[in-house]
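yo

u said u wanted the structure for the complex thing, so here. seqs first:
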Amino acid sequence: MNQRAMKKTSSNEYWISLAQKASVVSGVFSLIVAGFLVFNYISAQTGLPEKELLYSQRMAEQKALLDQNPKDEAVIQEVRRLDLQLRQTYFYRLFFSERGKYLLLGGVLISLVSLQIASALRNPPRKPRHPIDPALETQMRKRSGAAVGAMGAILLGGLFVLASTSRNDLASQTLTPPESADNATASEPDYASWDEIRKNWPTFRGPGGLGVSAFTSVPDSWDEASGENVLWKTPIPLPGHNSPIVWGDRIFLTGGDDTEKVVYCFSLETGEILWQDRMDDPPSTGGEEIRVFEDNGWATSTMACDGHRVYAIFANGMAAGYDLTGKKLWSKNLGAPDSSYGYASSLTAYHDLMLIQYDQAQAEDQKSVLYALQGQTGEVAWQVPRPVANSWTSPIVVDTGEGEQLITVSEPWIIAYNPASGEELWKAKLMGTDLAPSPVYANGIAYVIQPNDSVFAIRTDGKGDVTRTHVAWTASGFIPDICSPLTNGELIFLLSTYGTMTCLDAKTGEFVWEEDIEDSFMTSPSLVGEWVYLFSETGKLYRVKASREFEVTNTGSLDDRFLASPAFLDGKIVVRGEFNLYCLGRKQ
Amino acid sequence: MTEFASVLQRVALIASDIQRFPPPDFESDYTMPLPATPAPRAPWLGGVDVIVLFAALSVGVYLVHKKRSRLSVFLLMVFSLIYFGFYRLGCVCAIGSIQNVSLAIANPSYAIPLTVVAFFLLPLVFTLFFGRVFCAGVCPLGAMQDLMLIKPISIPVWLQQALGLLAYLYLGAAVLFAAMGSAFIICEYDPFVAFFRLNGNPNIIILGVSLLIIGLFVGRPYCRFLCPYGVILHHFSRLSHWRVTITPQDCHQCQICEEACPFGAILPPTGEQNGQHWAPDKKRLIPALILTPILIAFCGWVFSMAGSSFSKMDYTVHLAERIVLEDTGQADGTTDASKAFRDSGQPGETLIQDAQNIMDRYVMAGWILGAFFGLVLSGKMIRLCLPDRRDDYEADRGDCLACARCFSYCPQELKRRRISRTAPVTAGSEAAVES
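structre next:
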C-alpha cells in the first residue's frame, strides 16, 4: 500500500469515526427527546401535573364564588387570570410536543444518515470464494418450491379458518323483519279483529274509511249554548285538520305548527288529555326547508289504529308508532315530502301494518311510494313505488269478498293493492290533478271522484289495467272538490264545499236528486242508519235522509269551525273543531 | 370561546397525542378523530408534485444508469424522503394510486384525479425502460427503510420466495376492496405514513416501528415482501429495456456484489452440470402444470368462502351487521353510525338488502381473487422448475431495486471508473485497485 492509499485510509477512518460519533450523539439526543415526549404524553393522559391541578382547584373555587357573586369584579379577574394560566400551560405542552417531534425526527435522521455514511465508508466484508455448484441451484429451487407451496397452504388455511369461524349476522336475515318474541308465542294475532274494528273508529272515516257508522244510537241533536247532548268539550292545544280516531276509551289526534308536532290521547269519558308526545323535527339534511300550504297545516293526516297500536304522521315526514298507553315504539323520518300544498293523506292500518300513501312531486319524478311499516318496530314490511304525482287523498282497505284490497287514488292512476304484500291488483288511468276526495266502496264497486268534474264507478274484480274494461259508469255535474263521497250501497251522495248535495244511483250512476244546503262544508258526510250526517264548517249539523227523496233537518249547533270528519261510536260522536274537541251524547 | 375552541381543534388535529384540555370549560368525552388524509391542496400544486416526480425519476435514471453512483442515489433518496414523505405527508403516492385506478376502472362514475393517474403511470413507464429506479431513489417508503438498514443479514432464497407471495395477496386484496368501493387498505394500513405525518393510529405506528426494526437487519422488508406496487414494478422491470448491470465489464465472479446486495437480488451463475447448463426439473414441472387449473379452482373456492368475511370491510355491510346485532339484542347501545342511520329514518330492510347484495358480490370477487392467487402460486412453482442460465453474477431483473450498492463494491466497476479502494476486498486482493 503506498502513501496515497495510506493517506486515503487514514482519511476514511477519520470520517468513519466522525460519523459514528455523530450517530451516537444524535442517537442519545433522540432518546432523551423521546423520553421527554413519552413523559409529556403519559402525564397528559394520566393526570394533571400538580401545577395545573392546583390551578384547576383554585379555578373551581373561584367559579363557585362567582356563582354566588356574579358581579364580584375581583373574582372575575381572578378567574380570568387562572384561565389564562391554564391555557398558557396547555399550549406550552402542545408547543413542547410539536417541537419535540421535530427534534426527535431530526435526531433520528442524523443518527441514521451517520450510520449509513459510516457503513458506506467501511470496506465490504471479505468473502472467501466458494465454488459455483449447480447442485446448490437445484437444491435452492426445490427448497423454494416447497416453501412457496407451504406459504400458499398457510395462507389458504388461514383464509379457510377465517371463513369457517367468521360470523355472518346478515345471512339469516330475511327481508321481512322477524316477529317479536311476544308475537311469536302469542296465540292471538297482534292486531284487532274486524269485529273489534267495527265497534271503534280506527281510521279516517271509520272502519274501512267508508264513513259508515256501526251504531245508530248516536245523538241526532245537540246545542252547545244549552249544553244539550254535549258531554264535554276540551281545548286542543295545537291546530290540525286531522280527524279524531277512537279505540276503546281513548281518542287520538295530532296537532302541530311550525315549531311543535304533538300526538294527543284524550279520554273518551272525560275529555282530559291522558298522554301526549312531542315528535322531534327530522334532522336537517341541508336540503330545502319543508313548506306547507297555510290551509293544509302540519297535522292534516289522520292517525290510524290497529287495536294494539296507534300511528301518526306529520307533514314534515316524521312518522311514529305508540302503544295505546303512550309508549313510543318507534319513530322514523320518511324524508321531506315533496307536496304542492303539504302532505295530507291519512294513514290506514291493515293487521299490524301501518300503510302510508306517500305520494310526492310529479309522476315522472318517481318519488311516490306506498309504505307498509311493521307496527311493532316501524321497519318496512314492504314498499312499492307508485307511478303517480302528489295527491291529498287517503287510501281505504276494503273486503271485496274475493280478497282484501287497498284502494288508492292519485294522478293519474287509481291503483288497488293487496294490503298484505303490496302486490298491484288492478289500476285505472282516469284521474287529473289536485285530488283530495278519498274513494269509497260498496258491492264490488269503488267510487272515485275527480274534483269538480266526474265520479267514476270501477268494478274491483279486474286485473292489470282496467281503464277500458271495468269502469261501470261515469257521471258529471255538481261534483265535490274536497269532501269524500258516501254510499249506502244503493245510493251515492256527493257534497260540495258550497253546499250542493247530489244523489246518484250507485249501480247505474243515474241522477236521483240534487239540492242546495245553504252552508259550507269541509267535512265528509257520514252514514248513521238511514241518515246522512253533515257537519258544516259553521258548526251546524244537517241530517239528510239517505233515500231517493231529499229530506233534511238541522238539529245541532256548536260554537266552533269544523274541518275534520267526526267519529261515530256507541251512543257518542267525537268531533274536532278548530279549537276544541267535542264529545256529543245523551247525558245519563 | 368559539374561536378558541376552533384553534384548539386545529392544534389538536396536528398534535393529537394530547387531546385533553384542562378543565373547567373544554372537557368532554369527545375524542378528536385523527386526520385520515392531508388537507386538500391547490390543484396546481398537484402539477408541481407530478413535475417533481418526473424530475426525480429522470435524475434517478441518470444516477443509476449513467453516473452509477451509490452516494448520488442515496442523496436522491433523502430528497424524496423529505419531499414526498415529510413535505407531501406521503400522499399522493404511487403505491396507493393502485386503488384509485382500480376504483376508476370498476366504477366509471369515480373521477380519478390526473395527478393520481400520473403517479400511477410514471413509475411504471420509467420501470419499463430503466428498471426500478422509482424504488431506488424516489419512493419515500423505500427511502425510509433504506435509511434504517444498518446491519443487513441475508435471507435464504427459499424464504424470500415464500414471503414474496404476501405482496401478491396484498395487491389482490387492495384491488378487490378498492374496486368494490369498500376500502383503500393500502392507505389505511400504510405502516410509514404515520411517521411522515407525525401522527397516526397507534396500531399502525406499532406496525411501522416493527417493520423499521426488522429493517435494521433485513433490507426493505415492506418493499420486498408486502408492497403491492412492487409486484407490478417487478414484472415491468423484468421487461425493462435498459437493465441494471453490476458492471458493463467482464465479471470476475468475485461474489462481492452478491454479498453487498442487502436485498438478495444478485443471482449467482448457474454453472454446468455434466457439461450442460441446468435443465428443467421435469419431475416437478409436469405435476405443477397439471395441478395449475386445480389449484386455481381450489384457491377460488377458498377465497369465495371468505368472501362474506371480506365484505365486512364494506361500510354498508358493517353498518347492517351492527343494526342487526342491536335489533336482536346482541349488542348494547348504539354506535355513531347506527344512531345516525336510525335517525335518518331509512328502512333497515333496504340496508340489509344492500348489504346482502354487497356480500354476494364479494363472494363472486372472492372467486376472482382466489383464481388470481392460485395463478400466482402455480406460476411461482412452475417458474422454479424452469431452466435459467447465467454465466456471471447478475442483478435479478425483477427484484433488483437499482440501489447502486453493488456498483460501489464491484472491483471491475471500480476499475472501470478509476476509483480506488484502499483495502483488499477479497482474499485474493485482485480488486485492490489504485487509480
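Chain B has two domains: 45-275+389-416, 282-383. The longest strand of chain B covers residues 266-267.
cya
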